[in-house]
Amino acid sequence: MTLADVAARARVSAATVSRVLSGNYPVAESTRTRVLRAVDELEYVVNGPASALAAATSDLVGVLVNDIADPFFGIIAGAVQAEMGAPGGEPGRGGEKLAVICNTGGSPERELNYLTLLQRQRAAAVVLTGGAVEHPDHAAAVATKASRLAASGTRVVLCGRPPIEDATTLTFDNRGGARRLTEHLLTLGHRRIGYVAGPADRTTTRHRLEGHRAALGAAGVNGPDADEERLTVHGLYDRASGYDATLELLRRDRSLTAIVAANDTIALGVCAALRDQGLRIPEDVSVAGFDDLPFSADAVPALTTMRLPLHDAGARAGRLALGREPQPPGGVAMVRAELMARSSTAPPHG
User: In this record, what's one Pfam family (predicted)?
Assistant: First the structure.
């Protein structure tokens, strides 16, 4: 493929393509995006020498997160970045690396664009964190990007995602953790349990909801009927969604004795809504979260949650990305969740 082919695909001049690739001249963002997409689709390489260097990597490591302001992603990204400054590494791959945090905002398109840019920069490694978007086209596109990155010498590590080919994966035990969390409430005697889920198109959301419902099904509670859906409300992984979803759950069933939140940030909103409705935690309604973010133990009451060792997982992802730790068997390792039973859960009153 030639530069002229890229220009034709992007419907711009060859000079514009050159400006985008060199990065030395200002170009409209929409034009730049169109050119980069054409480059990616045509697998264009700038010139012969560059092609010969395709297997040589830079000192750059890209860390993709949904939202760096979210403590879940901030903890993982911080731990990955800390590993970049550590001495050592594989012979011939250098020591210290420059970690660049790529904030996708949850946008599938932006995620793919970052992967393209990191391939073009011949990144030494790419770490993708958090749940994946559940859409077959996007999943196929990410798998293709990972394959191209790996072929050019870039290590690809997933942290908190389902496995894909050409990537080392640290997958979180979201199903098992959610099941154990709901079993904890069932053991306490709860039978009317609401659930505040995350966005429906995320793997983390589906896996945690499946674990929750598996526990209910095993205990013969709710069952696979409409009631199961009625006591589930989807929203974003933020406090406001937890607040609004709790009001909706109470509107649907005022007899709820417990609410499970898909993460700790949602759980904060759940607690706020319950207090504003004059309900006590846990005397009237027990509340549980997931992740064990730093504020969870200091909430009032302290939040029952499933602890994921996010810092340890991020540090391990960083070491794997730099070849400082052996690959797990089959390229996949499970990160287990641990129940942290605190004072926000108790047997139902009366």
Answer: LacI
- The first and second tokens of residue 84, run together, are 């970049």
Closest CA to 273 of 257, 250, 298, 300: 250
**Distance (Å, rounded) from C-alpha 116 to C-alpha 41?**
10
- CATH topology for the 1-53 domain: 434 Repressor (Amino-terminal Domain) (1.10.260)
Please classify residue 311 by burial: count the beta carbons closer than 10 Å to its beta carbon, then call 0-12 exposed, 13-18 middle and 19+ buried.
middle
Residue 110 near residue 104 (C-beta atoms within 8 A): yes
CA distances in angstroms from 138 to 9, 59, 91, 250, listed in the order given: 21, 28, 35, 36
How many other C-beta atoms lie within 10 A of the C-beta of residue 137? 9
Listed residue (126, 159, 215) closest to 334, CA to CA: 159
Name the one residue in this structure whose structure tokens are 């589906």: 206
Structure tokens at 32: 């730049």
Q: Which of these CATH numbers, 3.30.160.250, 3.40.50.720, 3.40.50.150, 3.40.50.2300, describes 56-172+310-337?
A: 3.40.50.2300
pTM: 0.82
CATH fold of the domain at 174-308: Rossmann fold (3.40.50)
CA quadruple 196, 201, 202, 208: dihedral positive or negative?
positive
186-229 pLDDT, tens digit each: 999 999 999 999 999 999 999 999 999 999 999 998 654 557 78
Beta-sheet pairing, 305-307 with 338-340: antiparallel
DSSP state of 334: E
The predicted-structure confidence for 239-285, as pLDDT tens digits, reads as follows 999 999 999 999 999 999 999 999 999 999 999 999 999 999 999 99
